[in-house]
Amino acid sequence: MADDKKLVEAITSMDVDFAQWYTDVVKKAELIDYTSVKGCMVIKPAGYAIWELIQSQLDARFKETGVENVYLPMFIPESLLQKEKDHVEGFAPEVAWVTHGGLEPLQERMCVRPTSETLFCDFYANEIHSYRDLPKVYNQWCSVVRWEKTTRPFLRSREFLWQEGHTAHATAEDAEARTIQMLNVYADFLENVLAIPVIKGQKTDKEKFAGAVATYTIEALMHDGKALQSGTSHNFGDGFAKAFGIQYTSKENKLEYVHQTSWGMTTRLIGAIIMVHGDNSGLVLPPRVAPVQVAIIPIQQKKEGVLDKAYELKERLKGFRVKVDDTDKSPGWKFSEQEMRGIPVRIEIGPRDIEANKAILVRRDNGEKKEINLDNLETEIATLLDTIQVEMLERARAHREEHTYTATDYATFLDILDNKPGFVKAMWCGERACEDKIKEDAQATSRCMPFEQEKIANTCICCGKPAEKMVYWGKAY
Amino acid sequence: MADDKKLVEAITSMDVDFAQWYTDVVKKAELIDYTSVKGCMVIKPAGYAIWELIQSQLDARFKETGVENVYLPMFIPESLLQKEKDHVEGFAPEVAWVTHGGLEPLQERMCVRPTSETLFCDFYANEIHSYRDLPKVYNQWCSVVRWEKTTRPFLRSREFLWQEGHTAHATAEDAEARTIQMLNVYADFLENVLAIPVIKGQKTDKEKFAGAVATYTIEALMHDGKALQSGTSHNFGDGFAKAFGIQYTSKENKLEYVHQTSWGMTTRLIGAIIMVHGDNSGLVLPPRVAPVQVAIIPIQQKKEGVLDKAYELKERLKGFRVKVDDTDKSPGWKFSEQEMRGIPVRIEIGPRDIEANKAILVRRDNGEKKEINLDNLETEIATLLDTIQVEMLERARAHREEHTYTATDYATFLDILDNKPGFVKAMWCGERACEDKIKEDAQATSRCMPFEQEKIANTCICCGKPAEKMVYWGKAY
C-alpha cells in the first residue's frame, strides 16, 4: 500500500485565499491540466464527464423547444467578420488569425471563430427566402477562441467549449419571445440541474453584446461573493439582417428583414459549480451532474465477502452512476479522494455491516452520516440524492440572500462594495457616465437590470438624478 | 398549395454520373450547404442529426471498453508538431497556421490540429510516471483541419468532425491488443449500425499513418465500386514515447517507455452511408442512424379525423423516431421528400384506411408495400425496421461480393481495374516499387492486407517474385 505514504495533499483553505483554493481544487480533483499551449487547457476525464452531463441535459431541453443542431466552419474570412460594425469592433482585438494554409499564404486571412454570428448570417442569407423558411432555430456545440491576456481554468481561457444558438424570425416579437424563452431554459437548467440560483435580467448598453439590441443574462453569486455571468441571450433586432442582406418574402408578398437572436453557455459553468458548491475538502457536485453519484468504499476489503458485497450493491444500484473503489489504498485515503472529487454519496460497507445487513451512507455536501438497512438500499439512495440536489440549491440561495445588500446612498454603496462581497441592489439613472464612475470608484459593474424590479429609491445611487431602474451591482469574474 | 408547383427536383441518375448524383443527394436531402469559407461546409440539421446518432452509439461502445473522453487544445505550437520526424513530414504540408493573436504577432506560430498525437504525447509526458498510471485510454470528439486542395462534402473537406482515441500502455502487447480491439469496435459498428460490411486488414508501409509502426483499416465498397477507408487504428510502438520522453517506472522499478495507439472515425462515414445505400430517389438510411425512422403521411388530411389519427399513431410509436408530415403539400410531394431524405418507413393513412382499421407501410430501401391491421402497429413497425436493417447489410454485402474479383496475372489484373469497378484480390511481394507501378499503371492502391488471407497464387501480381501476402486492391475515395 505504497499510496498510503503520500495521502491526499491539503488544498489551500478558501477563507485564506479563494483564488488559490479554486486552482487547487481544479487541479487536485483532476478536472484540468495546463498545456504547452499558453492559455489553453486539457479538460481531463473527471472534468469532461461533467461537461457531457451538462451537454446532454441542456441539449434535451433545447430540443424540447424545437432547436435543431448544425455545424458551421471554425474559420471566418476577415471580410465576413467586418460586415457588422459593432460586432467586428467587439471581437477583432481578441481573435486568432490564420494566415497560411499548408505552405501557401492565404489570399484573405481568416480568424478562428470567437462566436459565429457572422457565419450564421452568411448561411441564413442563402437559406431564407420565404416566410415558409422561418423560423430557423439552430444551435451548435463547438469550441471557440478568444485571445485573452489573462486566463483561468474554465472561467477565462483562450479556447473554450460552448453551445451557441442562432435563430431567425419573421417578426421582432418572435425574436424577443425566443430570446426570453432561452434565458428561461438557462435559468431553469442552472437551478434544477446545477443547483445554482440565478438573477434574470437585462444587461445595460455598456455591458451588452457587440451588435445586440438587447442582452439578457443570468447572474450567479459565487461563494466568495463575486458574480459570475453564467449564460446570455441576445436579441439582435434586424441589425445583422441588414448588414448581411437576410430578407424573406412575407405572406403579403413584401420583402422583409428577419429578426435574429443568439444565446450561449460555456464550460465556465463548471467553474460556477466549483465556486458555488465547493468546500475546503474539494469539489461538491450536485447529483444531476455528478459523473459518479455514489462511491462504494469497502472496509477491510481483503476479508472474505466484502468486495463481493460491494459489487452486489453496485449491481443493485444500476439506475445510478456508481463506482466501487477496490484499489489497494486505505479507506481513509479513499474517503479523501471521494470528497476531493465531489462524489455526492459514499457507502461504507465492512464485515460487521454485512453481518448486520447494514451500511453507512455519508453525504458529501454536509457530512451527515446515516445507517441504513440494506433491504432499503435503492430507495434510500434515490431519496438521498434528491434531497441533496434540493438542499444544495437551497443552501446556495440562502448564501446569495445573505450576501445581497441594498444601498440608497453612495457612501454606503461604496462601503458595501469595498467590504461586503456580494450583490448590491441600487437605483440607476440609465447613464453610462454613472456606470463608468462606479467602475472607477469601486471596481464594480452593473450585473443586470433584474426582471423583478423593486423601487428602493427615486434617484440614481451615483448622480442623484431621477432613476427608474434598479440594478444589481457587484464585482465579477 | 403553392409548393405543388415545383415538385421535388430530379437528381442525376447514379448510372449516368455517380459523382453528380452524390452531390445532388447531399444537397437535396439537405445534409450540407456550401459556405463562404472555401473547402468548408455547413452540416445542416438533417446531416448533423445523423452524426449525433453515430456519435452517441459509437461513444457508448467506446465506454463499454473503458474509454474516457477528454478535450485538448485545438492549437499545436510548431515546435511540438516537429518532435516526431515522420509525423511532421506527413502533416506539415496540409495544416493551417495561426500567426497572430489579437493585434500581436505570436512568438511561435501554431497550427490548427490536423490530428492530436503530439498534444496527447505532451499531455501524457506530464501525466504518466508509474505503471499505476497505465493504461491511459482517452478519446476526444472534435473538429480537425487539413488544408486539402480538392474537397468533396463529407469525403474530403478542410475541416471535418471526428473522434480520435489516444492510448498509452505498459507493453507492446497491450498496445497491439488495444489497436485491434478498437478496429473490431469500428467494424462491428459499421456492420451492425450503418449496415456497411467491411474488410479488416493492415495497411502496407506505403499507406500507413505518418509515425505509426502498423496501421489497421476497415475498407468498405461504395455502390460505384470504389473503396472508402472508413476507420483506422494505429499502433505507434514506442516511437512517439521516445520523441516526447513518455516514461514510467515499472513494477520492477525500471524506467520504461510507454507503447501507444490512436484510432479515428470521421463525418466521412455519412458519405459512406450515402454511397453504399443511396439510390436514384435519394438517400436511404439504415434505421439505426435514421433521425426519422417513420414518416406518417396522411392522405386527404383535410377530412375529419385523418390528422387526429396520424397523431394518434405517432403517439403509439413513442419508442421510435417518428414524424407526421402535416404540411399543406400534396401526398405525392411528401412521398418524394420522404424518399429523398431516406426515411426508412412511410405510413400512408387516409379515410378509407381508418374506416377499415388499416394502414399501408412502404419500405424506403426496396419500395415494398404492406397493408397492416392497425391493432398490430407497434410490432409491425418494430419488425419491419429490424428487417430493413438486416437486409440493407445483406444487400450491401452481396453487392461487394459481386464486385470482388481475383487476379493471378498482371494483364487480367489491369483489365479488371480498368473495366470492373470493385476490389481485386491479388498477391504482392511486399515491395514498395510494385505498389508504385500499380498506382501508375492502373490508378489503384493497395487497400489492405486482409486479416483473412487466401493463398491465391505464389508470386507477386506485379513483379513475379515470391509473395506471401494477399492484398485487396482498388480505386478509392
Provide a descriptive summary of the structure in words.
The structure is a homodimer of 477-residue chains. By secondary structure, chain A is an alpha+beta fold. The first copy, chain A, is built from 14 helices and 23 strands. Chain A has helices at 18-28, 45-64, 78-81, 85-91, 117-127, 172-192, 239-244, 268-277, 306-316, 331-340, 351-355, 377-402, 410-419, 432-442, and strands at residues 32-34, 41-43, 68-69, 75-77, 96-101, 104-112, 136-145, 159-169, 199-202, 214-221, 227-237, 247-249, 255-257, 259-266, 294-298, 322-324, 345-349, 358-363, 369-373, 404-406, 423-428, 445-450, 469-474. In chain A, the strands form 5 sheets. In chain A, strands 3-7-8-14-11-10-9-22-23-21-20 form an 11-stranded mixed beta sheet, with helices on both faces. A 5-stranded mixed beta sheet of chain A has the order 16-15-17-18-19, sandwiched between helices. In chain A, helix 2 (45-64) packs across helix 6 (172-192). The longest helix of chain A has 26 residues, at 377-402. Residues 1-6 of chain A have low confidence and may be disordered. Chains A and B meet through strand 2, helix 2, strand 3, strand 4 and strand 5 of A and strand 2, helix 2, strand 3, strand 4 and strand 5 of B.
Q: What attributes does this structure have?
A:
homodimer; 477 residues; alpha+beta; 5-stranded mixed beta sheet; 14 helices; 23 strands; 34% helix; globular; disordered N terminus
